[in-house]
Every structure is written in structure tokens, then in C-alpha cells.
Specification:
There is one protein chain. The chain is mainly alpha-helical. α2 packs antiparallel against α4 and α4 crosses α5.
């Protein structure tokens, strides 16, 4: 086996391992946590004065409903909690029902 073949085989195996269910969930959790942290940083740095907003402006309505309520932050936290729940259920199925898990989840 040549060195190039070994490198290709190693890269292929590494890419396959990253596509397993648990790794996808962990990557998803990392992205959600990074997004929540980034939004927290933005809300700490950028202050919006809500006293001069009008009901007629679409921009003001958007800022009021999305930024001042911190809706994206709460969405990221809720999505993160649900992702943790799915990871726990996936691990539960892998430990309690290993044969079913290997036949149904791992082969997908």
C-alpha cells in the first residue's frame, strides 16, 4: 500500500466517523452553544434604546420583537436543551438496546 492510499483511507475513515449520529449531535450542540454565546456577547455590547420607537416602523417592530425580547437567545437555549435530550435518548437506546441500535441507527 502506498502512502497516498493510506492517507486517503485514513481520511475516508475519519470522515465516516464524523457522520455517525452522536457526532452529528455533538457538532449541532457546539453550533447552538456558539450561537447562543455570540448572541449574548452582541446583546451585552449593543444597547438599543426602546423609548424612541414608533409603531409604524417595520424596523422598530423587528427590533422590539427580536432584539429587546432576546428571542434568538431563548430560541438557542431551547434548541440546545432539546438537543441534549435527543443525545440522552440516543445514548439510552445505544446502551439498553444495543442490537436494535446497531441494526437501525448505525446502518443509517
Amino acid at each position: 500500500m502506498r502512502d497516498g492510499d493510506a492517507a486517503f483511507s485514513s481520511t475516508t475513515m475519519t470522515a465516516f466517523c464524523f457522520l455517525q449520529t452522536m457526532n452529528i449531535l455533538i457538532i449541532n450542540q457546539s453550533v447552538l452553544d456558539l450561537s447562543a454565546s455570540f448572541f449574548t456577547l452582541l446583546t451585552a455590547v449593543v444597547e438599543v434604546d426602546g423609548t424612541r420607537m414608533s409603531r409604524d416602523s417595520v424596523y422598530d417592530q423587528f427590533v422590539c420583537r427580536m432584539w429587546l425580547t432576546r428571542l434568538p437567545f431563548w430560541d438557542f437555549l431551547i434548541a440546545s436543551s432539546y438537543n441534549m435530550l435527543v443525545m440522552a435518548l440516543e445514548r439510552y437506546a445505544a446502551v439498553i438496546y444495543p442490537i436494535w441500535y446497531n441494526n437501525n441507527v448505525r446502518s443509517a
